[in-house]
Amino acid sequence: MYASRWSRVVALVLLTTLMLVACTPKATPSAGDDLISKAKAEGMLTVIALPHDWCNYGEAIETFKTKYGLQVNELNPDAGSADEIEAIKANKDNKGPQAPDVIDVGFGFGPQLVEEGLVMPYKVSTWDTIPADVKHPDGYWYGDYYGVLAFEVNKDVVTNVPQDWADLLKPEYKGQVALAGDPRASAQAQMSVYAAALANGGSLDNVEPGLEFFKRLNEAGNFVPVIAKQATVAKGETPIIMRWDYNALADKEALAGNPEIEVVIPKTGVIAGVYIQAISAYAPHPNAAKLWMEFLYSDEGQLIWLKGGCHPIRYNDLAARGVIPDEIASKLPPAEAYAKAVFPSIEQINNAKKIIAEKWMDVVGADVK
């Protein structure tokens, strides 16, 4: 009888223990701490092509440095997507400061990254909230943010602000129109040509009218063959440029009316572009690179992009959970401005990119530098 009673006591204790274990909140996985420790041991992250006014990257970089105590080595902030890829190739055997750990390139470059073995797979902890059609299934790359091509106009120089692509051909804009990149290498510039095609009788499968448009723009003397940026706009050297809306909005805020900037989403040819993140297969600091990805794809990182006027790739998830602060949401452009935006597929982007890069000099004949 004693043994039987003792067995019941033991059973009751075991049952209570199991219930307590089941009800106890799970501890935070130690993988995050391990990654942070490994990244700190590496001590540095090397990035490339991240201007501080692009998508609020300045705040993102400074927040990352403060949060984790890592140095961030910033290479060529004005580089284009093709330059980023070339930097990986040129530094395959170089573990020095010229080898990028991570890249942020146009959507159309995704297949090339995988085919040429230039990037390593890594799935961030928020992987499931990234839409399936903008990420590689094995984690070799994933979309980070998107925007639409807009006109950024210095109103101190341009009193009659153009509202559509056709306006740019007017004589009053002689020597005033520029691209924010070399269309032979820059995704932003290539997408500008793509957008012009849509506004001039082309389609997502026919980019030729975009090249013809820039040929006319160049022949009219309106096109300025320099890589435009905030400084050239502010000085009046390139008072009208084609730029992602988030970059244009960031310039407007940074310049704070000196000069006054107007951001115009054109009436026609509104094209949306997704950018993607990836970790170099030859990254000198692979753990710092993974930690950077975890930071960018956390709510904190996504909201930093949104604060900079970008639409982060996890936007729908953030909105559904009600975590977007009102002070950020109130500064976003009205939804109707994006009603006509189209999203080309990666195959269409690749086809357009190839045609633009190969035919730009033959058709347009402007050596953008």
What does this structure look like?
This protein has 369 residues and is of the alpha/beta class. The protein folds into two domains: 34-145 and 273-334, D-Maltodextrin-Binding Protein, domain 2; 147-272 and 341-363, D-Maltodextrin-Binding Protein, domain 2, CATH 3.40.190. Helices cover 41% and strands 16% of the residues. The chain has 14 helices and eleven strands. It has helices at residues 2-23, 31-42, 57-68, 81-90, 110-115, 187-198, 208-219, 230-234, 245-255, 286-296, 299-307, 315-320, 326-329, 346-363, and strands at residues 44-48, 71-75, 102-106, 119-120, 142-154, 177-179, 223-227, 240-244, 261-264, 272-280, 311-312. The strands form two sheets. Strands 3, 4, 5, 6, 7, 8, 9, 10 and 11 form a nine-stranded mixed sheet that branches. Helix 2 (31-42) crosses helix 10 (286-296), helix 6 crosses helix 7 (208-219) and helix 7 runs parallel beside helix 14. The longest helix has 22 residues, at 2-23.
Q: Report the sheet-strand fraction.
A: 15-25%
Whole-number mean pLDDT? 90
Shape: globular
Number of helices: 14
Number of domains: 2
The whole-angstrom Rg is: 24 Å
What's the N-to-C terminus distance? 94 Å
Stretches with pLDDT under 50, minimum 5 residues: 1-31
> Structural class given helices, strands, pairing?
alpha/beta
CATH C-level label of the largest domain? Alpha Beta
Order of helices and strands: HHEHEHEHEEEHHEHEHEEHHEHHH
CATH superfamily of the largest domain: Periplasmic binding protein-like II
User: Which fold name fills CATH's third level, the topology of the largest domain?
Assistant: D-Maltodextrin-Binding Protein, domain 2
The largest pleated sheet is described as: 9 strands, mixed
